[in-house]
Amino acid sequence: MVRYRPLRVLWALALVVILWAATGLAIDAARSSPSPNPTTTAADAPARPSQPARGGANEAALSSAQPATPDASGAPAGVPVGTTAAIRPGSVNATSMNVTAEYSATVRLSFGTRAFRVYEAIVVTNTSGRAIDRLELNTIAARLGGMRITEASVDGAPVHPTVTDQTIHFPLGGILDPGATTIVRLTYRATLRSTTSGSTWLFTRANGILEAHRWLPWISRPTPFDRPNHGDPFVTGVSPRVRVTIVSDRVLRYATTGNQVGGSGLTKTFEARNVRDFAFTAAPDYRLRSTTVGGVTIHVWSRPGFPAATVLAAARTALAKESALLGPYPYSTYDVAQTAGGFGMESPGLTWIPTGAGSLSYLVAHETAHQWFYGIVGNDQARQPFDDEAAADFVARYALGLRRASRCSPARLDLTIYQYSAACYYERIYIQGGNLLDDTRKAMGSTRFWAAIRDYLATNRFKIATTKTLLETLDAHTPLDLGATRFRTRFPSIY
């Protein structure tokens, strides 16, 4: 037994040497390898928003669709390559709005310097029924923010967009067939304005408030931004899901489309479903007032001195009365935010009320009605403004008993926003258009009229409708020939 002891000692010594060598190699490797989580501050690198959850074959593609995160120098990092080869070689010279798109974005902003950087990823499924080889993305940052695109790719392959007016012409680098899905990435830098004159209030930081409308490049069609009035030069389809992470240089309180789902301090994440755009406002000293109506929580965000109690009461009244007429409001929350100036403005689940605005009950009611007309049922707001503006103004004035006569002579209601003067755009589209709808209600009878309106909203829910669709829906709910007796002279392009 004793004779085996030296062999055991030798084996033990060998084992110690092996363990010591392995430990040394591991330590050396750890010291020489970069950390998988390099230390950065919130101002250096934005959080990466998670992607829309979709099952099946698209799951892997979606997991790689997060916007590129900049490195410590601020330059965008490399873009992960998509897991599917959706784009095939060739061209068809075609685009379409009839695609399904889910948007994910990180915004890095400086309240102090007005710097505004966007890292966007769009998961696009071609549901148009035909092959396409480009997308048209609209953003007012191109017109108001001096936008500079710094990176663009499709499934990880670089592409070279061009910009005309507010439209980014985004080549796919090949053909996207019907049913195929691709991941589009875009990063840009812009600067917020510092005034509220003209249209600058849509993308500005002024009077202690930051506001960003139509900042997120969204699939659309080329639409001129300049117009002679305050009409909305936009047309957008609904996205089933939008997720936005905002990283700021100081702690801000936000009023946004959708709801906050994560983050705190300098980094906050928001998510919205079934929306046509994602707008937000922010201020360091926003105060919050809340109430509920029929299960919907109403938030009013304002700075000291703003008539928040009056606005909250107006929003409560508008939401209650308009829901009774039109059907349920589509979201769980409704936010109303004080803005730096400009006009009242609608976004899905969010209304902007400018500092110093008058007629607050009417203004809040009009913008609230847009949650149905433009929000639930979309339209080409630039080319067919009657659909949302006349309908929203009629509903607001009917709910509040504020009908009045137009201050401009009667005119056509089927023109684009580019064809109405600043003096008479509101008087003709809002007032004359709203009065036409009210007169139609009286002729049809309220029961049939409101049934037709609810039918229009249900049939076209989260779609894009036309003026013709609205008028024909009204006509179908009455034995009267509304086309011949009421609509023909005001809508000659249709009748």
Defining key terms:
495 residues; Immunoglobulin-like; 27% strand; five-stranded antiparallel β-sheet; alpha+beta
Number of helices: 10
Order of strands in the sheet with most strands: 6-5-9-3-2-13-16-15
Mean pLDDT: 87
Largest sheet: 8 strands, mixed
CATH architecture of the domain at 42-284: Sandwich
Give the CATH H-level superfamily of the domain at 42-284: tricorn interacting facor f3 domain
| CATH level-3 fold name of the domain at 42-284 | Immunoglobulin-like
SS class: alpha+beta
Question: Would you kindly provide a written description of the structure presented here, covering whatever features stand out?
Answer:
The chain is an alpha+beta fold and 495 residues long. Among the domains are: 42-284, tricorn interacting facor f3 domain (Immunoglobulin-like, Sandwich), CATH 2.60.40.1730; 386-487, no CATH class. The protein is built from ten helices and 24 strands. The strands form five sheets. An eight-stranded mixed sheet has the order 6-5-9-3-2-13-16-15. Helix 6 (386-400) packs across helix 7 (425-444). The longest helix has 28 residues, at 5-32. The chain is globular, with a radius of gyration of 27 Å. 45% of the residues are buried. The model is unreliable at 1-64 and 68-83 (pLDDT under 50).
Topology:
Elements: H1 5-32, H2 59-63, E1 87-88, E2 100-109, E3 115-125, E4 132-138, H3 141-144, E5 148-154, E6 157-158, E7 162-164, E8 167-176, E9 181-191, E10 203-206, E11 209-212, E12 218-219, E13 242-248, E14 253-256, E15 259-264, E16 267-272, E17 280-283, E18 287-293, E19 296-302, H4 308-326, E20 333-339, E21 345-347, E22 350-354, H5 360-369, E23 377-378, H6 386-400, H7 425-444, H8 446-459, E24 463-464, H9 467-476, H10 482-487
Parallel strand pairs: 2-13, 19-20, 20-22, 23-24
Antiparallel strand pairs: 1-8, 2-3, 3-9, 4-8, 4-12, 5-6, 5-9, 7-8, 10-11, 11-17, 13-16, 14-17, 15-16, 18-19, 21-22
Helix pairs in contact: 4-5, 4-6, 5-6, 6-7, 7-8, 8-9
